[in-house]
Predict the structure.
Amino acid sequence: MCIIGCSSFVGPDDYELIQSELDRLVAQSHIVLFIKGNRKFPICGLSSGLCYMLKQCNLEFSTVDLLIRPQLSLFMRAMHEPISAPYLYAGGKFIGGYETVRTMFDSGLLGSIVR
């Protein structure tokens, strides 16, 4: 499997390495938010919005900065198309992107879904 996007390339040899990195990052914390920036300094509005929602629900979470991991960013974009960053994982599973998480937050279900 090859994933091509922007000016970067993720070839078949890199695929397993990047999948391993994703699996390792998701296993390090129950709730992991893949964003542009980090939880203290999110770079874009959507990333900032998801950090805010998780904090409002009193959820402990870690962040992974996709800006310093361009291959991981391309990999995740291809994996979750048409959803773009940010990406929320909980309990090792993909929960959703901004719109999905916003819907959960607005309905009051976000805290119970990702715990």
Observations:
- The chain has one domain: 3-114.
- The helical segments are 12-27, 45-56, 70-79, 98-106, 110-114.
- Residues 1-8 have pLDDT under 50 and may be disordered.
- The longest strand covers residues 31-35.
